[in-house]
Design brief:
The protein is α/β, with parallel strands linked by helices and about 280 residues long. It folds into two domains: about 5-165, Rossmann fold (3-Layer(aba) Sandwich), CATH 3.40.50; about 170-275, N-(1-d-carboxylethyl)-l-norvaline Dehydrogenase, domain 2. It contains eleven helices and nine strands. The chain has a six-stranded parallel sheet with strand order 3-2-1-4-5-6, sandwiched between helices. Strands 7-8-9 form a three-stranded mixed sheet. Helix 1 runs parallel beside helix 6 (about 125-130) and helix 10 (about 235-260) runs antiparallel to helix 11.
Length: about 280
């Protein structure tokens, strides 16, 4: 079976380990490009071929993975690709961009016979290094299928989120939770510090129990956010979650008041938890 010819543009903190997974994969013939010489040299040592420009890369491959900094850089890369690309190629945008950008790029690329998917990743540099990323893909069924050989080499979870732009919207929803949770963690740290507790040990407990329970993802099984009916299976489960949550939040807020620690997210959670669960 002939190899799939894949190009990778952007060998940064996450792009480089993603490209290294491609370089190590059977059935992938990899070509890379980046302006920084060190990661390029590392990829060449790992077996990838090196292109002297984006255009030179695009002329040699079927799938072009793009992991650059922002919307402007993605547009610049696509512009160079379209100058030389042939019909049937697929551009895979891994960069997290504005929700409107993927559809704009797809429209532009389609005039040149090029397919586009937006395929942002979740899992960070560690997931990229060990091939356990989640990749959320927006695009047509045809474009998704065309990109799949490269995606499967870099991820343990690949989900077709919907039409173009859906992958980016998936990523933004996922990261909203991610960074709101980070902010809640800083609030918890302030409370623990004021109570004289060991913050490093608290972090160990959080990581340990989240690995067991799934963290916030543990409640994300329903296909809708509509209010629950009392005869719904999830009503009893979430009513129990609400009771525990409201009890513990009330105690935590009382402790924060005693220690003069501002915990606005805890107050919001107490007010919104039940409604958010559909109760």
């Amino acid at each position: 079976m002939p190899s799939t010819r894949v190009g990778f543009v952007g060998l940064g903190n996450i792009g480089k380990p993603m490209a290294l997974r491609l370089a190590a994969s059977d059935g992938i013939d990899l070509v890379v490009y980046d302006v920084a010489p060190d990661p390029v040299a590392e990829l060449e040592k790992a077996g990838a071929r090196v292109a002297t420009s984006v255009a030179a890369l695009a002329a040699k491959v079927e799938i072009i993975c793009v992991m650059v900094r922002d919307d402007d850089q993605v547009r610049d890369v696509l512009g160079e690709i379209l100058g030389v690309a042939g019909d049937g190629q697929t551009v895979v945008i891994h960069s997290t961009v504005s929700p409107d950008t993927p559809a704009q790029l797809e429209d532009t690329a389609a005039r040149h016979g090029i397919k586009v998917v937006d395929a942002p990743v979740s899992g960070g540099a560690m997931g990229a290094a060990d091939g356990t990323l989640a990749i959320m893909v927006g695009g047509t069924d045809e474009a998704f299928a065309a990109a799949r050989p490269a995606l499967d080499a870099m991820a343990s979870l690949v989900t077709h989120a919907g039409p173009i732009g859906a992958g980016t919207k998936f990523k933004l929803a996922r990261n909203l939770m991610h960074f709101v949770a980070f902010t809640a963690a800083t609030e918890a740290q302030r409370l623990a510090e004021a109570a004289g507790l060991d913050l490093v040990e608290l972090g160990k407990v959080v990581r340990h129990t989240d690995a067991i329970t799934g963290g916030p993802g543990a409640i994300m099984h329903r296909a809708t956010t509509a209010p629950l009916q009392e005869d719904d299976f999830w009503y009893g489960v979430f009513d129990h979650v609400r009771a525990l949550g409201e009890k513990d939040l009330t105690f935590a807020i009382a402790l924060a008041d005693e220690l003069d620690v501002d915990v606005p997210m805890a107050h919001e959670a107490l007010n919104r938890l039940g409604r958010g669960l559909g109760l």
